[in-house]
Amino acid sequence: MAEPIAATEALHREYETGDAVVHALQGVDVRIDRGELTVVHGRSGSGKTTLLNMIGGLDRPTRGRVWVDGAEVSAMGEDELVRLRREKIGFVFQAFGLVPILTAAENVEVPLRLRNEQPGARTKRVGELLELVGLAGRARHRPYELSGGEQQRVAIVRALANRPKLLIADEPTGQLDSSNARTIMEVIRELVRSEGVSAIVATHDPLLLDVADRVVELRDGEAV
Ligand code: ADP
Ligand code: MG
Q1: Is residue 41 in contact with ligand 1, taking CB distance under 6 Å?
Q2: pLDDT tens across 183-205, in order?
Q3: Can you give the pTM of this predicted structure?
Q4: pLDDT digits (tens, 9 = 90+) for 37-47
Q5: Which end of the chain is more exposed for a tag (fewer CB within 10 A), N or C?
Q6: Separation of 96 CA from ligand 1 center, angstroms?
Q7: What residues contact 73, with CB distance under 8 A and at least 6 apart?
Q8: pLDDT confidence of residue 180
Q9: Is 48 close to ligand 1, i.e. is its CB under 6 Å away?
Q10: Which ligand lies nearest to the CA atom of residue 24 in the structure?
């Protein structure tokens, strides 16, 4: 079997709140295969965000282990985590998170500038990405001139600008109506194919599971 892009072993995360302890993850073992779209599904509070944050190196497990691309994330120091997030992972969140004063194209360009890519290469990559999500004609628009679905498409290709190996999207459709939500899932589906990226997408919406190659179902912090 090929090495998975990400995996967890006996993963636990507990949050202490006052005198109570919340068991957000209680021994989760998952395996995320390369080149696949894995959807993490479960009700609100089932542990989806916690699991994605552990895999993305945004938070640390209480116990258990996490690997991404063969490296043990749960054993990394802060500098290594920063490098992992910058070089291997693209993040997308429910709230789009575009920079309001920048155009769609400039938003997508930000990560390329941070990597000191040459201007010609940046323009080419930005154009190709916006084209992929049907927004070539919107390149010079600012976020407030775009619909929610369009803003999320910009955020998704911004996350892919540096060709990460893994796209992590936490409820990317949470602020969208059902038709835009479906479009976003299909866009991610298509990018997994065309860009060869692996993706983990969390959603509580059962109607979006059909685009997945694999579904991880969480219930009360356990994979079922
Ligand atoms: P989901 O994303 O599926 O809605 P979460 O991973 O956000 O679930 O939360 C799982 C559980 O952990 C919930 O009971 C939630 O209230 C709790 N939780 C999440 N983050 C924190 C935190 N920072 N402090 C305390 N409890 C938390
Ligand atoms: Mg969540």
Answers
A1: no
A2: 999 999 999 999 999 999 999 99
A3: 0.96
A4: 999 999 999 99
A5: N
A6: 20
A7: 54, 55, 57, 66, 67, 81, 84
A8: 95
A9: yes
A10: 1
Q: How far is the CA of 209 from the centre of ligand 2 (A)?
A: 16
**Separation in Å, CA 174 to CA 44, 55, 114, 185:** 11, 20, 29, 11
Domain 1-88+164-224 homologous superfamily, CATH: P-loop containing nucleotide triphosphate hydrolases (3.40.50.300)
* Closest by CA position to 117, among listed 125, 107, 127: 125
> What are the structural domain ranges in the chain?
1-88+164-224, 98-162
Q: How far apart are CA 155 and CA 100, in angstroms?
A: 12
Atom of ligand 1 lying closest to residue 53 CA = 6
Measured in Å, residue 94 CA sits from the centre of ligand 1 at 16
Interaxial angle between packed helices 148-160 and 104-114, expressed in degrees from 0 to 180 and rounded to the nearest 10: 20
The ligand whose atoms approach the alpha carbon of 42 most closely is 1
Ligand 1 atom with the shortest distance to the CA of 43: 3
- Look at residue 118 in the predicted model and tell me its pLDDT: 96
Residue 44 near ligand 1, beta carbon < 6 Å: yes
Reported as type and span, the H/E element at residue 89 is: strand 89-93
> Which ligand 1 atom minimizes the distance to the CA of 51?
6
